[in-house]
Amino acid sequence: MSFVNCKECGEEYSMKRAKLGYHLCLECGDQRANRIANFRSKCSAPAYNKGAYQPMMSTDDARWAGK
Question: What is the pTM of this model?
Fold first, then answer.
């Protein structure tokens, strides 16, 4: 089985994972996913008046939130 090096930590991971399009090992990928999830949890607003809170993914989303 061949291995590929992680782009963040340099640790080796499976070629099968690389063929799926992942460029990070499981640990680095998990850390990045947690950072993104924490950031997105703080970026939510009602999309329209009296609507449920929606994640704001861009500045345009935030600009039009609640209108």
Answer: 0.64
